[in-house]
Amino acid sequence: MDHATEFSADPAQVAVGGDSAGGNLAAGVACLAATHGLHTPAFQLLFYPWLDLSRKRTSYELFGDGFYLTERELAWYKGHYVTNEADALDPRCSPLLTKELIEVAPAYIATAGFDPLRDEGEEYAARLQHAGVPVALRRHPGLIHAFVNAIGVGHIGRDALLDAAGALRVGLAAARARAAKPAKPIRHQPPARLRESIARRTQHRPGDALLEAAGAPANDRFTQTRRRLMTD
Length: 232
Description:
This protein is α/β, with parallel strands linked by helices. It is built from nine helices and four strands; from the N terminus they run βαβαααβαβαααα.
């Protein structure tokens, strides 16, 4: 992002994103940037990310076989990515193990209901929320891993991708609004009312939570953009 202006890009509008292992890399960049005091991305867009190679969660047991991505395949991928178990405990490999998430970029995280990686994506969302980071979590209950790569088969994958695209646009708009305001002290824990609002709204309208958590005024042009996106 230090060279963004060389490409006529706004460094405050650079996001990172990816699906599955790509989500691991995107979240890793966001966490490393925050940990080392670097220019952090404006937003994280993560689809069913693989965020912790050090242990298996309940979703492995529930969906480890027969739902496209299998537990055996994940073990094979891990064996070709890390040389020993100690590597899997490194936050650069498993971003979910990052100790402090307070200054990590806001995020939209989409998980699939029948996916062995479901639980760690949702755990990452919970940790971001606990740290006071604006985050929207959307579980697609009837879908499997890699659904955004199947947008040509039916409308469900396409609809999920459009939801995420709308959240990304809203997230970048909120980032632009934050960049135009004086910096505010970072709260370690968001107020209970904000946490309840995020939980209530993100299920169907993730953009609302992102704008509310970012502090955007209720009737400004960013909110109007969100409403238009969500109703188009």
